[in-house]
Backbone:
């Protein structure tokens, strides 16, 4: 759900009203010992000081915010600080004090940053992580803030000073700030800027070194109001400044003197996004704007294209009837632009796209509707980078930032826009357009080595004019602003492309630009940076940097040795697994029975290895009640009776039966019974109780009540799917991607169900993005590989060949890469997966694959089970109770009949696997056990996905999948299903 604070602030800024109910900015919260539990919320943390430094060069401001938190309690606290940024701002730096020294943050993928942060919180060491949301809110989490101690963070950001609205952000605190100070310097402007400070603080500018400066202090007061800087006039239209990267950048702010004239009689096409995330946009304001635009331009025709992940509906509308058609739209499903491809639509001169631009499903290909495109959004967290890509250089207009009058003027006259920047010698210069207002333009870009910058500017009359600008040095010292804004635009553009993440990371780090795609992290000591595989920042202390380099050299040597020995180790483990597969196993029954004869014992029977001592040993229930002579006969019909051991007289102590079938025997008949899907949810009960004709009405009512619960959309999607309402089920499922609470776990859950619902392409698109953003984890590779194999099973030869080759490559990476120790065992699971794919590849004429020949062996089995789960730092266990009464469990991973349990994954995600080459008759009960939940996030829901496969690796292989939701307070054993072997 979108935040509304920016919308409220815009109104206050435009109309000069006070903000008595304004949410705190900055805000500060704390939790005891970093545990994410409302019961651990603390009020002991206070803002001891808040210092702002604002540095203006022309129409760009660089701001540094330094905040110190004080903990007055006896507990270790985790501090959570957030700061709403001004319009168009880009975060360029974050620092945290480590032992009294401010250490800069390093940009890494958000998932990796969070994982590394949480690991160190569990270890009680000093980390800090900072993120920027799409709504342009900066937030940082710092741990620990010691009892009766303090921590300091520093935030830097650059932002444009808009030609009409200036620069502003709220400064409102719920409690008094110990000390507040602000220092402002302005260069490259013709006069001292208009400045407003919180608490009606007086301003007194002083001339300073060719510019202007002021200082203000407010001790011991709660802040009320905002920092506002009015629009400025630069000393020259084109200013040059040097970025820390060494490059020189220009900023050009100019305007036209020609008044734009509204064009009438155009053919208009309106694209209206009806995805779930749009339901809390300012939809009435958008409809008001559209009504006024159509009344103003009097179009020749209007066509509506209402779209979401379920498709697009095209409808001709009368200009006065558009609102009525759009007022009844149901907002559900995900945002997809792929559904707009190849639409049969009437021609149009102007296209208006109303969307937040946050594409959550399907490829984001080029959008070319054959008309001039303008994008309008009222969402503060809109993806402006993608909307900018949609418009192909056209305007991206924001109802949460701009007035209705300004947007109408831009839409009516289109306004000037820069289409090219070049040097005097004709070389194109990379540039980014900022919001220059209805009659102006503002651009930043790479400055030429010498000479002027030439801009080509297009206007509403379609005439293209050239403007020549001589660059004036604004300041000899370095200034981040112009370069940071240019880099931020480039990062936003890369973020709007599929699978451009590597280039995005490169640009972000080169220019120190944070975004929703990358987070800052600060770690405590050199060893932490080495362990996390993160290079420390440029300002790292010399002694610590020397220690890091020494540790890193040893670590790299160890990694090289691990990489060199990895293949040999995996081959050894695989050889052991192949020996297991070729072993004839026996089952023991410890009940005395009578028999008339004895059979000599077989020497060399396989024994299960000793249970590991890593955790408390659970008692394995390895005894069957009784066995009769008829039981022995029944076993003999399907299995070779190897031995009947006589103890004394006519009493038989043991019966030993192998798990290997006699030559020429038919495979065992195996069936699977899954536990019934029966979540205890009030909304499902309401749907079950509804008459068929009332289901849609009941569903709408329950959705209003449970609108922000991800479980609601998953549960209802499953309910609809079981009712054979597949299209509605998928729309409901994809809605979960649009929730405020949606994260990588949500994406994984949606992808898993899409695969089960038969929407394989969409599942693969989600899996591809997950792998790209979690390259340091092996599990996303495996999940993607299995999905590719699923698609290959029904694809044509060319598609199947490409998918299977990619799947083998991904699985081979899992096998050959030395991962973190917490993932030990995944290589053997991946080898079972990859060897199943090789026969199909051979059938398709592919014989050369990246898998060592010594690792190639298809170990077909009667029973294969594996589980995986969606939460980190959560220990789930796979248990299998065999017909003999013996339990395969982490403390007893090898059973007498040949059951084989993979390595125990104790730190989250899985997988864990059970294999049985030859199954004896009887029932096999499959269950999971919640051994340990995440200690710092006890409220998270864990979803376990279980795969029960019979006749694995054979032509008659069959698989059943089940998802089990485990709520935070649920512990103990949960049954998933049963195999029955006849």
Residues:
């Amino acid at each position: 759900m979108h935040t509304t604070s920016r919308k409220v602030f815009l109104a206050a800024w435009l109309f000069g009203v006070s903000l008595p109910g304004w949410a705190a900015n900055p805000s500060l919260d704390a939790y005891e010992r970093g545990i994410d539990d409302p019961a651990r919320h603390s009020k002991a943390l206070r803002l001891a000081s808040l210092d702002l430094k604002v540095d203006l060069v022309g129409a760009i401001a660089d701001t540094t915010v330094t905040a110190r938190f004080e903990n007055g309690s006896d507990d270790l606290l985790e501090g959570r600080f957030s700061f709403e940024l001004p319009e168009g701002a880009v975060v360029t730096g974050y620092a945290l004090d480590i032992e009294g020294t401010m250490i800069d943050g390093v940009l890494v993928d958000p998932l990796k940053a969070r994982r590394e942060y949480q690991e160190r919180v569990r270890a009680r060491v000093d980390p800090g992580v900072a993120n920027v949301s799409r709504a342009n809110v900066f937030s940082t989490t710092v741990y620990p803030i010691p009892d009766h101690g303090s921590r300091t963070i520093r935030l830097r950001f650059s932002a444009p000073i808009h030609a009409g609205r200036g620069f502003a952000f709220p400064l409102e605190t719920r409690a008094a700030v110990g000390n507040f100070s602000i220092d402002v310097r302005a260069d490259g402007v013709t006069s001292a800027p208009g400045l407003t400070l919180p608490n009606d603080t007086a301003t007194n500018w002083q001339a300073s070194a060719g510019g202007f400066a002021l200082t203000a202090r407010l001790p011991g007061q709660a802040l009320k109001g905002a920092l506002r800087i009015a629009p400025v006039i630069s000393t020259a239209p084109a200013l040059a400044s040097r970025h820390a990267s060494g490059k020189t950048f220009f900023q050009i702010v100019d305007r036209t003197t020609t008044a734009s004239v509204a064009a009438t009689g155009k053919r208009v096409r309106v694209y209206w996004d009806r995805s779930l995330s749009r339901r809390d946009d300012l939809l009435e304001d958008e409809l008001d704007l559209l009504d006024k635009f159509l009344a103003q331009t009097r179009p020749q025709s209007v066509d509506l294209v209402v779209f979401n992940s379920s498709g697009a509906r095209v409808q001709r509308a009368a200009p006065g009837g558009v609102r009525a058609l759009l007022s009844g739209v149901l907002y559900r499903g995900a945002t997809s632009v792929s559904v707009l491809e190849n639409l049969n639509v009437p021609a149009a001169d102007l296209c208006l796209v109303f969307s937040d631009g946050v594409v959550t499903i399907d490829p984001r290909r080029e959008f070319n509707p054959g008309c001039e495109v303008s994008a309008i959004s009222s969402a503060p967290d809109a993806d402006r980078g993608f909307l900018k890509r949609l418009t192909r250089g056209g305007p991206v207009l924001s109802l949460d930032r701009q007035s209705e009058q300004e947007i109408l003027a831009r839409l009516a006259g289109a306004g000037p826009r820069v289409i090219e920047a070049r040097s005097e010698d004709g070389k194109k210069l990379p540039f980014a357009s900022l919001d220059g207002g209805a009659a102006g333009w503002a651009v930043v870009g790479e400055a030429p080595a010498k000479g002027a910058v030439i801009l080509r500017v297009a206007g509403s009359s379609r005439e293209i004019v050239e403007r020549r600008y001589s660059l004036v040095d604004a300041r000899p010292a370095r200034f981040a602003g112009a370069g940071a804004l240019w880099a931020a635009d480039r990062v936003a553009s890369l973020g709007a492309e599929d699978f451009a993440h590597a280039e995005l990371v490169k640009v972000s780090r080169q220019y120190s630009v944070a975004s929703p795609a990358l987070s800052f992290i600060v770690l405590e000591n050199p060893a932490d940076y080495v362990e996390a595989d993160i290079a420390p920042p440029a300002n790292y202390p010399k002694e610590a940097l020397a220690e890091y380099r020494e540790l890193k050299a040893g670590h790299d040597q160890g990694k090289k040795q691990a990489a060199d020995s990895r293949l040999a180790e995996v081959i050894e483990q695989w050889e052991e697994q192949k020996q297991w597969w070729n072993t004839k196993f026996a089952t023991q029954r410890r009940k005395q029975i009578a028999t008339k004869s004895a059979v000599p014992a077989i020497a060399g029977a396989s024994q299960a290895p000793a249970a590991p001592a890593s955790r408390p040993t659970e008692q394995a229930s390895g005894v069957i009640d009784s066995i009769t002579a008829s039981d022995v006969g029944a076993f003999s019909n399907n299995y070779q009776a190897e031995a009947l051991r006589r103890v004394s007289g006519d009493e038989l102590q043991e019966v030993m039966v192998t798990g290997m079938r006699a030559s020429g025997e038919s495979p065992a008949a195996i069936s699977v019974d899954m536990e019934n899907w029966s979540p205890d949810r009030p909304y499902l009960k309401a749907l079950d109780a509804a008459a068929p004709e009332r289901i849609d009405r009941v569903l709408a009512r329950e959705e209003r009540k449970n609108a922000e619960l991800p479980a609601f959309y998953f549960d209802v999607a499953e309910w609809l799917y079981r009712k054979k309402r597949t299209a509605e089920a998928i729309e409901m499922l994809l809605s979960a991607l649009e929730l405020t609470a949606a994260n990588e776990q949500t994406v994984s859950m949606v992808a898993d169900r899409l695969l089960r619902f038969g929407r394989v392409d969409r599942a693969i698109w989600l899996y591809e993005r997950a792998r790209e953003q979690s390259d340091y984890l092996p599990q996303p590779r495996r999940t993607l590989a299995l999905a590719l194999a699923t698609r290959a099973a029904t694809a044509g030869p060319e598609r199947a060949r490409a998918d299977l080759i990619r799947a083998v490559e991904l699985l081979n990476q899992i096998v050959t890469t030395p991962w973190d120790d917490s993932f030990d065992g995944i290589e053997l699971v991946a080898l079972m997966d990859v060897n199943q794919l090789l026969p199909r590849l051979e059938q398709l004429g592919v014989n050369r694959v990246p898998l060592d020949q010594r690792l190639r062996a298809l170990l077909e089995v009667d029973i294969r089970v594996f589980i995986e789960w969606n939460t980190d730092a959560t220990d789930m266990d796979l248990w299998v109770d065999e017909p003999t009464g013996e339990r395969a469990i982490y403390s007893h991973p090898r059973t007498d009949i040949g059951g084989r349990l993979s390595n125990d994954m104790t730190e989250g995600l899985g997988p864990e696997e059970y294999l049985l080459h030859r199954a004896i008759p009887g029932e096999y009960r499959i269950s999971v056990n919640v051994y340990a939940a995440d200690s710092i996030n006890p409220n998270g829901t864990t979803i376990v996905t279980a795969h029960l496969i019979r006749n694995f690796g054979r032509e008659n292989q069959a698989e059943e999948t089940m998802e089990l939701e485990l709520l935070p307070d649920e512990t103990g054993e949960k049954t998933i299903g049963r195999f029955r072997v006849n």
Remarks:
- The longest helix spans residues 542-582.
